[in-house]
Specification:
252 residues; alpha/beta; globular; 47% helix
């Protein structure tokens, strides 16, 4: 499968249909503008994404940038759209068992109930909203291993924010050997629970979904969208001019 490069990130040249058919094992990550900016300074995160089996375009902004670079992608695959497509695709597959890990207290449980109601069966076999700073708490992590292993889940969605979710999967997945697919999908659990609303389609078509998110949570999103993420466009301009240099190229 071909990949296209935006800055130092190689993204799969794949459609949603193609991904649904081929996603049987591995770690799925979905870079957006904010994540690519983080990969300019966070070497650990950068290496984790480079090693992931599936790296797909989460963002319409990145989709547009790929066109500008002359390496168009077939479509953007936001995690919040791909995940419901995934469970609908596996609706009749009794072997598909999902565990939700993330979101605020009670939200993952609510998402589980809503998905199972839609599917008409217990497709989501477990859900847990971890405590703040759980990744540094060995006892809680042991509890998570046991919950996932006992549930029989072979698909785990982790939504605890970037890059924490990708780093947690990388550090802990070996403790849950029966899990075939790991998905690092940010706020997807919140969307599934109805806790956060996705932008209406017109906002998405106008490449303004990010601004809709900002209007929902301005205090939390201000730094991300107006201080951190604009750096991406400076890096992109350098790539267009042939001046961009991967900050970790020598250490590959």
């Amino acid at each position: 499968m071909d990949r296209i490069k935006i800055l130092n990130v190689e993204i799969d040249d794949i459609t949603q249909e193609g991904l649904l058919k081929r996603l049987k094992k591995g770690v799925l990550v979905t870079p957006n503008v904010d994540q690519i900016v983080k990969m300019q300074s966070d070497k650990e995160y950068y290496n984790i994404v480079r090693q992931a089996e599936w790296v797909v375009c989460d963002s319409n902004i990145l989709y547009l940038c790929a066109k500008i670079l002359g390496t168009p992608l077939p479509e953007a695959l936001p995690g919040s759209s791909f995940f419901p497509a995934f469970y609908q695709y596996h609706k009749g597959d009794e072997s598909c068992k999902i565990f939700l890990l993330g979101a605020m207290d009670g939200v993952a449980q609510k998402a589980m109930e809503r998905i199972n109601e839609k599917m008409g069966r217990t497709m989501v076999v477990g859900a847990y909203s971890p405590s703040y700073g759980f990744e540094k708490k060995p006892e809680e992590n042991q509890q998570i291993y046991q919950m996932i292993n006992d549930s029989g889940a072979n698909v785990v969605l982790v939504g605890v924010g970037c890059p924490k979710q990708e780093k947690w999967i990388d550090a802990h997945k070996a403790q849950m050997p029966n899990v075939d697919i790991w998905m690092a999908l940010g706020a997807t659990i919140d969307f599934e629970a109805g806790n956060v609303k996705r932008a209406p389609m017109i906002w998405r078509k106008l490449y303004m979904e990010w601004f809709y998110r900002f209007l929902q949570e301005p205090k939390r999103m201000y730094k991300r969208y107006f201080i951190d993420d604009p750096k991406f466009f400076w890096y992109l301009m350098k790539q267009l001019l042939g001046l961009y240099k991967d900050p970790f190229e020598e250490s590959k």
